[in-house]
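Quick board copy: two proteins, each given as sequence then tokens.
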Amino acid sequence: MGPLGGKTAFFDEARAYMLAPTPQARAGPAKASLHFKRSLAYRETMRFSTVFVTLGLGALSAVACSETTGGGPADTQDASTADVGTPDPPDGSTPDAPPGSGFGSLGFKVADDGFAFENYGEGAQFTNLTGAELRRFFGDTVCATPGGDACGLTPSAQRWLLEQNKGMDGGHCEGMAALALLFFKKTLPVQDFGAATTGALALEGNTKLQREIAYWFVTQALDPTASGELKGPSPNEIVDAFAASLRSGATESYTIGIYKPGYKEGHAMTPIELRDLGGDKVGIVVYDNNYPKTERIVEVDRKANTWKYVASTNPSVPQSEYLGDATTKTLTLTPTTKRVATQQCPFCGTVEPNGAIKGNTIGRMEVWLDGKANLLVTDAGGKRFGHVGGAFVSEIAGGSTYVPRSRDLWQDDHEPVYRVPTGQAYSVTLDGTALAGKEPSDLSFVAPGYELAVLGVELDPNQKDTIQVSATGDEIVYTTNGSETPTIEIGLATDAADYIFHVKAFGEAAGQEIRLKLDRVTGELRVIVRGADAMASYDVEVIRRSSTGEAVFTHAGEQLGKNDAVVLKYAAWTGQGTPMKFGTDTGNDGTIDVEVDENDDN
């Protein structure tokens, strides 16, 4: 007798496992031993289940091959990094089984356990992420004013929420894939959302469900979910990891991600079964939320270590075929244990008068582009991150990207979200070289304790605009040669109050430069507009949020000489409906020459 204890013991164990009447019983004393899972007898057990079919015990075979329940690998491994190893397969090979039969299944039925409605994008009838969901993630640290779920958000929280909701315009696949799995696993009670089963839930008019889908959608942008995505494994290793999650007693489950090269055009689905397709091919059966009530298959060639998925039901759309191999790293798994863990807040914190960030240890800034242009981020040392001459370069240490997975798939080729270390100054080029026509663009920077944005740019083909941001987020400079009239935004969170500033300078054909600079010590905002004309016109809005509530100041139609600066004394402003002191610095030499009380237009 060898270390496995003999085949008789193995078949006794296998029989007990397959005859167990319930998933709970299979997860108990009858669950497979470590040797059983790793040995050659695993394959013999699969043959054994086929013998049961021959004997007319098809239902028992279904239990063994198609209804194994549970989550992750029996040998738990940390999935907190993208290149983490995957659990060992039972014996390094695919179990033998007749073509078309299953290797294992969650028992997830797409008609009952998937949503009956299709993945959806933008629409006035849908509600996405709200302040309530941010509080659920991160607590009251996202609030600048009191009010519970209706609190006024900090500037960074508000801008991050807006950008995440824009990301859902392309679809909610991540949220739908994750939530369907959580309902199936009974991690969340589906009954709380309006029906006895996931397949019976209605989307229209179901605001609670819409917000829940949005909540789980954004976990892909947060750690440990994002860093836990398994991007390193080959297709075969992905199959092995998923197979491990189908074993009795497993504690992990996954959503699956597919990408085109460069992690573009991503999509999220729910893997539910492994199926033998014959000829060394294995099918990962998925619930694809783009196709309700229909099983679809990601095909993995075990011999070639490749995978493919046709994302369209129309064979005349060649772009819809997704392909990958062991080098592309474009087939991924996201562990549920990472998704349901406490998520880290990337934007929480306040800014000290000296520019130091308090209350955040992540130390990164996110750069979001809403539009079809390309971006290039350059640090003070000339290191680049983004697109250069049609190629993607990554020279900034600590830089990374993530691509929200969407509904539009191969039709979605937007820029990723760029992540760069805080504490450094950056210059960002908004590049319209590849544009076919005028395109609207918004560019946002979100960091712990502050945010900046350039909103409403109308970028022409071959136009290149530049945005410079300081190392502490207290200054933003926008330069264009076009006839732009964007709104420049800068927001900061402090212990005393939070502020959001909007300045809109009216452009001219010859271009202009707009500079906003905060002095956090004196509580002043300096505005400089440089253009070809002798005078520039601008509008300003100041929003203050604190423990006493929100106050808003607006003033429109002010004139400013092209060599002058205006200084808004925001910290001295006494509140809603009262004037704010504006100082004019003629020649921008640092001295206020004229100071007046400007009335609130509200």
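And the next:
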Amino acid sequence: MLTGNASCILKAINWNMAVAQMDVYFLQPVNNMTVRIKVFKRDYSNKYHPFLVDVLVNLCDIIGRRNHSPYGKYMWNLLKRYTNFNHSCPFLGYMFARDLFIDESVVPIKLPLGYYQVSLTSFENYRDKPPLCLGTIKFYAQSMIPVTSKRNRTKPMNRTNIQDTLQTAIIPVQIGN
């Protein structure tokens, strides 16, 4: 067992955004962390099916700038901004993420409207068989038209200007082990 005292708290900021506060304590040094990023989309039968992304990213290589994967770059930008995972490997002791959220500028494509699950599974020494799983973080998000206040609306919504306001807002709904 490499981790202990893992916790996650979600706080709703408004209808369009929630932030996560995550903490974990590494009991032993993590020298070679690999993260598997998988994205799923919910269909009409409420089942999540794979959607476009299933990649492995070595976090130590990303931080050391030895890997230039586009998914690794997105992950590194989030880590730099919201966590203390900003130093090279090994990781040991208390690690955290504060006010973590994923906005639409981080997502490389415009997602179709719907519900999504982003699964981040981290491993130590992934090349070993079997690899040691450190844990899984699952983000549940919705791509939707942003909710606006009736007070701030300047003109009534009709078919022509709804296309102007169609944006992708990603809201973490739940994070779990």
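Board note added afterward: Residues 3-162 form a domain with the Ganglioside M2 Activator Protein; Chain: A, fold (CATH 2.70.220).
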